[in-house]
Amino acid sequence: MTVTLADVAARAQVSPATVSRVLNGNYPVAASTRERVLRAVDELDYVLNGPASALAAATSDLVGILVNDIADPFFGIMAGAIQSEIGGPGGRAGGERLGVVCNTGGSPERELTYLTLLQRQRAAAVVLTGGAVEDAPHQAAMAAKLRKLADAGTRIVLCGRPPSPETGAIALTFDNRGGGKELTEHLIGLGHRRLGYIAGPEERTTTRHRLEGHRAALAAHGIEEDPRWTVHGRYDRRSGYEATLELLRRDPSLTAVVAANDSVALGACAALRDSGLRIPDDVSVAGFDDLPFSIDAVPALTTVRLPLAEAGARAGRIAMGREEPPPGGIATVRGELMVRGSSGAPRG
Amino acid sequence: MTVTLADVAARAQVSPATVSRVLNGNYPVAASTRERVLRAVDELDYVLNGPASALAAATSDLVGILVNDIADPFFGIMAGAIQSEIGGPGGRAGGERLGVVCNTGGSPERELTYLTLLQRQRAAAVVLTGGAVEDAPHQAAMAAKLRKLADAGTRIVLCGRPPSPETGAIALTFDNRGGGKELTEHLIGLGHRRLGYIAGPEERTTTRHRLEGHRAALAAHGIEEDPRWTVHGRYDRRSGYEATLELLRRDPSLTAVVAANDSVALGACAALRDSGLRIPDDVSVAGFDDLPFSIDAVPALTTVRLPLAEAGARAGRIAMGREEPPPGGIATVRGELMVRGSSGAPRG
DNA sequence: ACTTGGATAGAAAGCGCTTGCTGCAACGCT
DNA sequence: AGCGTTGCAGCAAGCGCTTTCTATCCAAGT
C-alpha cells in the first residue's frame, strides 16, 4: 500500500534503523549510506508517517496558534508572523514543524477544546494570542490546562495577552493600558473634554486595559467621566457604527470618540458621517492597533500602533526555543501613538 | 508518567479495548460499563494520545486549510468559515477534528511543503483556498501531490480556486472572469472609455481571470485597450498606491481605475487623493471582493462581492463529507456587483 | 601481532492505541 | 432440554516508527 520505512530500507539495502537515522540526522551515518538511503526515499517517493514517528519519539512537530478571530487582520498579522518563525515551510530545513492556527472565535469553550485537541496531538508548543476572557472559572480552567500542557513538555507562549502567573508561561504583553492612556492624553492635549469611549466586549483583558488607560488619562487631567460616555460592543465595525449612534444620542455634545480598535473606529467614522458630522472638525476619532487599512480612512486614523508582526515573530521564536525568553518570562511590548488626520482640536 | 488507556482500563476494571470503544463510540458497550469508564477517564483526567490512535487507526483528525495570506481578511474570512464547519470545537460532538490553517504566503514551495507536512500527518482532508500559481512545473508538482494525497484517502477541496481536472478534487470556483467583466461593464455604462487596470501578481489564476473579464468587457464594447493602462502589482494597498501613481504618470487622462482587489483599490484611492484628484468626480475607482472595510472607504467602494463565508462553509462541509459535492465535482460561485460611491460618470 | 576504541550498522523492544476474532453468558426458539 | 442467537467484553496482533543495546570493522596504540 503506502510506502513505509521498511520499504525504503529494503531498497537501500540497509536496516530500518539506518533509514530513520538518516531522516532524522541525529546519528552518524556514513556519507555513502546516507546517499543511498536518500536516493531510495526519492525513488519511492516516501513520506514519513507523522503519527507513527510522533508515537515512537513521544514528540510531535505540531505547534498550535490560538487566535480569537482569524478574519481580523489583528490576529492574521500575528499568526502569520508566528507561523513564519515556526519554520514549517520557509523556515530553515531540519526542524520542519507544522504551525497550525486555530480560531476560537473568542469563545472560552472553543479555546479550551482546542487546547485539549492540541494536548491530544502532543503539540510541541502553543502560542495564545490576543486578550483573554476574564471569567474566573474559565481562567482557572485555562490555567489548569496550560499547566498540564507545560508539564507534558509543551512550550507555552502568550502573545499580546497578559501573563498567567500560575502557569509559568512566557508572556509578551501589549501595553494596552499605556497606549490607551497616551491616546486619550493626546486628545485631551488637543483640548477635548467630553470624550466618548467605545469599549470592546466586557470581561476581556484587552477591553479592560484599554479602558483603564483611557480613564487614567481622564483622571490625570481632572476630567470627570460621565458614565454615559462609555458603551461596550464587539470588536468590529458594525458595533462601532451602532455604538457611535448610541453615544451621540446620549450626549450630542461629545467632541471626540475613542474606539477600542481600528475596525470599531472605522464604524464610528461612518456613523459620524452619516449623522452629518465632520471628522475631525466636529468630532475627533481615534482607534487602536494601527492595522494596515487605518491609514486609508478619510481622514487617516489617529491610533496606537502595536508591533504585531514583530511581537508575533518573537513569540514564534521563543516557542521554537530559538530565542531566549525575556527575563522573568514576561516582557511588555509598547505601542506607539500615531497622530493622523482623524484627530484635531475641538470646535470653538 | 502521563495517563494511558491502560491506566483508565485498570481503574475502570475493564480491558483497554473496552475503553477505546467507549471513547470512540463505534461499538456496543453496556451503559453501566460505559459510565464506569467515563468516570475513570474523568478522574484520571485522561487525554487520548492522538498520534498513537492515528497510527493504529490509520486515520487522523487533522484537516488542513491552505491560505495565501493569513493577514488578508479575504483568506481570514474563508478560513474562519471553513474551520467552523470542520467542527473542531464548536462543531457537534463526536468527530472532533482539528482544522489547521497554514499560511503559504503565496509561495509555491511553501504550498508544496505544507502539503507534504499534511500528507505526513495523514490529514483527513485538505482545503486549498484562493488563486493558484500558474507556473507549469509547479502546477504539475501540485497535481501529483494532490493526487497522492487523494489516493491516500485525504479528501481535497478547492475553495476559490480553479478546478484541477487531473486530481479529481472538488472545486468551488469563484467566477472572477464574470465578476471582472460585470464590473468593467458598469464603468463603461457610466461612460468611461479610458480605464486603468491594476492587476495582481502575474502567473496567478485570480489575476488572470479578473483581467480577462475586464478585457472582455472592453472588447465587447469596442474599446481598444492601451497596453499602458495595465500595471501589475501585489494584492496589497501599497502596491495599489504605487501602481496608481504609475498609471497616472503614463496617462493622466484616465477616468477610472479598476483594481485587482479592495486593498489595492484603497491604495489607489489614497494615491488619487494625494494627487489632488477627487473620487469619483475626477476618477472612478473599483475594487473586488467586497471585504468588510470596503464600505468604509470614502467614498464607499464599488466592488464585486464574493460570498467568502458561504463558500468557505460549504467547502468545509464538503471536506467533512457532510455535504454532497456539486455535480461533476465543480461549482462556480458568482460574485455580485456592488455599486457604491466610488464610481460615477466621468467628467465632461 | 594484539588490544583498544571510534565509527557505523543492525536487532529488537517498545510507543499507546485499534480492531478482528474469540469467549462466554443469558436469551429465545423448536 | 438442546441449540443457535444476541450482546458484551477481552485477547492479542499489529500500526510504522525510534532508540537502546549490541555487533562489526578497521585504524591506531603499544
List the helices and strands and how they pair.
Two copies of one chain form a homodimer.
Chain A: H1 5-12, H2 16-24, H3 31-44, H4 50-57, E1 62-67, H5 73-86, E2 98-103, H6 108-120, E3 125-129, H7 136-151, E4 155-159, E5 170-174, H8 176-190, E6 195-199, H9 205-220, E7 230-232, H10 237-250, E8 256-259, H11 262-274, E9 284-286, E10 303-305, H12 308-319, E11 330-333, E12 336-338
Parallel strand pairs in A: 1-2, 1-3, 3-4, 4-5, 5-11, 6-7, 6-8, 8-9
Antiparallel strand pairs in A: 10-12
The structure holds a DNA duplex (30 and 30 nucleotides).
GO molecular function, one term (chains A, B): transcription cis-regulatory region binding
Domain HTH lacI-type (chains A, B): 3-57
Organism (chains A, B): Streptomyces griseorubiginosus
- Quaternary structure: homodimer
Helix content of chain A: 40-55%
Enumerate the strands of the largest sheet of chain A in spatial order, edge to edge or round the barrel.
Answer: 2-1-3-4-5-11
* Global mean pLDDT of chain A: 94
CATH topology of the largest domain in chain A: Rossmann fold
Give the helices and strands of chain A as they follow along the chain: HHHHEHEHEHEEHEHEHEHEEHEE
Class computed from helices, strands and strand pairing of chain A: alpha/beta
CATH homology group of the largest domain in chain A: Response regulator
Biggest beta-sheet profile of chain A: 6 strands, parallel
So, CATH architecture of the largest domain in chain A?
A: 3-Layer(aba) Sandwich
Residue share in β-strands of chain A = 5-15%
Counting DSSP E segments of at least 2 residues, the number of strands of chain A comes to: 12
For the termini of chain A, the CA-CA separation is 80 Å
Low-confidence spans of chain A: pLDDT under 50, at least 5 residues?
89-94
Biggest interface, chains and residues, is: A-B, 67 and 66 residues
Number of domains of chain A: 3
Radius of gyration over C-alpha positions of chain A, nearest whole angstrom: 25 Å
